[in-house]
Amino acid sequence: MPPTTPERGRTLTGVALMLGAMALLPFLDVVAKHLGQRGLPVMQAVWARMAFGALLTLPFVLRIGGAAALVPDRPVYHLFRAGFLIAATFSFFWSLKYLPIADALAIFFVQPLIVTALSPLVLGEHVGPRRWAAVAAGFLGTLVIIRPGFQTVSPGMVLALMAGLSLALYMLMTRRISGRSHAMVTTFHTSLLGAGIATLAVWPVWQAPEPVEWGLFLLLGVIATGGHFLIVRAYDHCEASLLAPLAYTEMVMATVAGWWFFGDFPDGWTFVGVGILIASAVYISIRERKAGAETPRDFEQP
Known about the structure:
The chain is mainly α and 302 residues long. The chain contains 13 helices and no strands.
């Protein structure tokens, strides 16, 4: 085999970091589902995700930009972004009360297709007929997973779709400010403002957590921050269009984690629908790569 060139080495490192992040992030859902089974309100898990996420990213932000980086440059804009991220996180965590992790994630994967469909309206981007066809195929994949008319559409399916839509709107807002500041700084601002919103929302339903639940709250923040850090580092080594399809490898660990911790396993039709979604997303990524389009480096996982 030919020796590894520096550029090829960077690409392989970026791919490895992205795959590592996708192997780690499903455990965020495992912890959230476990907290729900312990009877804690969903909003408390959302609050922990935001509050501990802000706390754990704080040292990185201080290292990147010092104390000046703690103040958002566009606070109202970041506040709306935080609101969409909270809506996505809340809807997804709530969907885990009704669905296995892999099923909820499969429906949630409609998010990049929604971004593509709405980008002409929100961002004025051009989407050609081939990418529209890929979006339509992805929507068909979502219908295969949900199968309306062939099975009862559970509240969890609706919540997972709402999570995908909310995160799509969050990502569209992220694209508008992409490149203005470091991704970690932007993420910190979103988590900080999100923690403020979540604090107000969780106050009326707050239940005193037990010590083990405080530990799970911290674990939510550690997993989310660790996964995000790996993704940021991956984007430092590879272009976005190469890494974007790798996000779908998260389904592998989500399936394993759901089976191991909760005894859940998706049915065959779910895998068929996920296959259609992945094919659609990979095609869209290839088209964007050929067009020279970059997806935003800022990334969030509900």
